[in-house]
Write a structure and sequence with these properties.
Blueprint lengths: L33 E7 L8 E3 L6 E2 L11 H6 L1 E5 L30 E2 L7 H16 L13 E2 L9 H9 L3 E12 L9 E13 L5 E15 L5 H16 L10 H21 L9 E2 L1 E7 L2 E7 L3 E6 L2 E4 L6 H7 L4 H5 L22 E6 L4 E6 L1 H4 L3 H9 L10 H15 L5 E11 L4
Antiparallel strand pairs: 1-2, 1-8, 3-8, 4-7, 5-6, 7-17, 8-9, 9-10, 9-11, 11-12, 12-15, 13-14, 13-16, 16-17
Helix pairs in contact: 4-5
C-alpha cells in the first residue's frame, strides 16, 4: 500500500512512507526460495518483499520483520525493529573492536595483507585476507583488502583435507541471535532529512544428506548521510542504498562477498550518482554525494565497508572500539606523517576526502575489512550527527553497554541515543542502527 506521494520515476522506494514502488515477486509454492524483508528509511509503513532463489534442495523458513511504531517514536522519527524467530530451544533467552578472529584452515595464504587502522585489531586484517582467498577459491576472486594502515605478515595456512576442514568449520562459533533497530531524525537545526538507512535480515535452513538441519542467519545494514545542493543529499543517499541492495542480493548465499565484489558493488552505487550529477550539470557544492557505512553478517562472519565519515562501532566485554576510520583531511595528513595536533588544527581538518557521487570510480577507494564474532557483540552504525563531539566515546557505558544484554530493548535504546544526540549535538540529521549479536560458544 502506497501513500500517494509523487516520487521521481527513478525511485524504487517511496521517499515519504518507505514503501516498495516495484512489484513484489510472489514466492513460488514449488520452490520456497528465500524470504527477505527490506526496511528502508523512512519506515512509517514497513513493507516486505519476497525474492525467489532457485535452490530446491533448501527448505527456507523466514519471519518478516516486526515493526513497532509508538506515537512517541513517530514524534521523534521513523523507527524499525526486527526480531528473529527461535532457532534453538532456548533461543528466547538470547538477545547505522576487540574482535577475535578464528581463521579458516581451508585457505592458503597468497600474499601479505594491509593492516586495518589503529582502531582495528591486527587479527581482523588477517581475516580480511583469509576471507578474500576463501572467496577466490569459490570463484569470487577478490583482491586483498585496502585499508589505511601498515602491512603485517600472516602465517602460511595449508589447505586441509575435506574432513579436517569440515571439523574446523564446525568448531567456529555459531550465531544464534541477531536483533536490530534503526532510527533517523531530522535534528534541531535542519529542515529536511538527507540521511537514509536500510536493514535486511534473513534466516534460512536446509537439510544435509545426513539429515542434519543447518540454520544460517544473515543481515545487511546500510547507512548513508547525503549532502549537496537542493534536493541533492536525500536523492544521493537513497540512490546509494537502492543500488547496493540491488547488487548485494545475489550474495545472499553461503558466504559474504569478497573484497573485490564489495568494491564493485560500492563503485556501482558511486557511478549511478556520478552519472546523475553529470547529466544534470551539477557543479561544485551543487554536486550531490553521500557517505556510506555497510555492515553485512553471515553466521558469525562480518564484512564492513565505508566511504566518508559515517561510522561503525563495536561493543563487547572488552569495551568500545571504532572499527571505521573517517575519510577526512586530518587523517590523510596524519597518514602522510603530519603530527596529529597540527593536522587537527587546520580549518579543513574534518573536510571529507571521499564520498559517493561527486567523482568517478577512479577516485573512490572504500575501506573494507572482515571480522568474526566470538562473543556477544553490539554494533552501532551512525551518521556524524550522532558521533560528533565524541558523543559515543563519552556516553557508551551508559547508553550502549546495557544494550549488549540478550534481552536488551533495542527500540528504546536507539531512541535514547537519538534524544541524547539532539541534546548534545542537534546541528545535523541523526541516524543510528543497532545490531545485537549473540553466539553459541565453541565447545571442544
Amino acid at each position: 500500500m502506497q501513500c500517494g506521494f509523487e516520487n521521481p520515476d527513478r525511485n524504487k522506494f517511496c521517499q515519504n512512507c518507505g514503501s516498495n514502488l516495484a512489484s513484489v515477486v510472489a514466492k513460488n509454492e514449488n520452490n520456497p526460495g528465500v524470504g527477505t524483508t527490506w526496511q528502508v528509511n523512512p519506515v512509517a509503513q514497513v513493507q516486505s518483499e519476497t525474492t525467489s532463489w532457485q535452490d530446491p534442495t533448501d527448505e527456507i523458513n523466514h519471519n518478516d520483520a516486526i515493526a513497532s511504531l509508538s506515537e512517541d517514536a513517530l514524534d521523534e522519527g521513523e523507527i524499525a525493529v526486527s526480531i528473529e524467530p527461535d532457532i534453538e530451544p532456548d533461543f528466547d533467552n538470547a538477545a547505522n573492536q576487540d574482535a577475535s578472529i578464528d581463521l579458516d584452515p581451508e585457505l592458503e595464504r597468497k600474499e601479505d595483507i594491509n593492516a586495518a587502522t589503529a582502531d582495528v585489531v591486527e587479527a581482523s586484517d588477517l581475516a580480511s585476507e583469509i576471507h578474500d582467498i576463501h572467496a577466490e577459491l569459490n570463484l569470487d576472486n577478490p583482491n586483498t583488502s585496502d585499508l589505511d594502515a601498515q602491512p603485517i605478515n600472516a602465517p602460511q595456512l595449508p589447505v586441509m583435507a575435506t574432513a579436517e576442514a569440515s571439523r574446523a568449520i564446525d568448531a567456529k562459533p555459531r550465531l544464534i541471535s541477531m536483533r536490530h533497530a534503526g532510527l533517523t531524525n531530522v535534528g534541531k537545526q535542519r529542515t529536511h532529512n538527507e540521511d537514509n538507512f536500510a536493514i535486511s535480515s534473513q534466516i534460512t535452513t536446509h537439510e544435509t544428506p545426513n539429515r542434519e538441519v543447518l540454520t544460517t542467519l544473515r543481515g545487511l545494514f546500510l547507512l548513508c548521510d547525503g549532502m549537496g545542493g537542493h534536493a541533492g543529499g536525500e536523492v544521493a543517499s537513497s540512490m546509494a542504498i537502492e543500488k547496493i541492495v540491488e547488487k548485494f542480493i545475489p550474495f545472499w548465499g553461503n558466504r559474504l562477498p569478497g573484497t573485490k565484489k564489495l568494491r564493485e558493488i560500492i563503485h556501482a552505487a558511486n557511478q549511478s550518482i556520478f552519472e546523475l550529477n553529470e547529466s544534470e550539470l551539477r557543479r561544485d557544492v551543487g554536486r550531490m554525494g553521500t557517505t556510506l557505512v555497510l555492515l553485512s553478517i553471515c553466521n558469525s562472519e562480518v564484512a564492513i565497508a565505508h566511504v566518508g565519515d559515517s561510522r561503525i562501532y563495536q561493543i563487547n566485554a572488552s569495551g568500545l572500539r571504532q572499527i571505521t576510520r573517517d575519510h577526512e583531511v586530518a587523517n590523510r595528513l596524519i597518514d602522510q606523517g603530519v603530527e596529529a595536533t597540527v593536522a587537527l588544527s587546520r580549518h579543513d581538518a574534518h573536510q571529507l576526502t571521499q564520498a559517493l557521487g561527486p567523482y568517478d570510480n577512479h577516485q573512490i577507494e572504500p575501506a573494507i575489512a572482515f571480522l568474526q564474532i566470538l562473543e556477544p557483540t553490539l554494533f552501532l552504525l551512525c551518521s556524524d550527527g550522532l558521533c560528533d563531539n565524541d558523543l559515543v566515546e563519552q556516553n557508551w557505558e551508559t547508553y550502549l553497554l546495557p544494550l549488549l544484554a540478550t534481552d536488551a530493548d533495542l527500540e528504546s535504546g536507539v531512541k535514547k541515543l537519538i534524544d541524547l544526540a539532539n541534546t548534545i549535538n542537534g546541528h545535523d540529521n541523526i541516524t543510528a542502527i543497532l545490531v545485537n549479536c549473540q553466539v553459541e560458544p565453541v565447545t571442544n
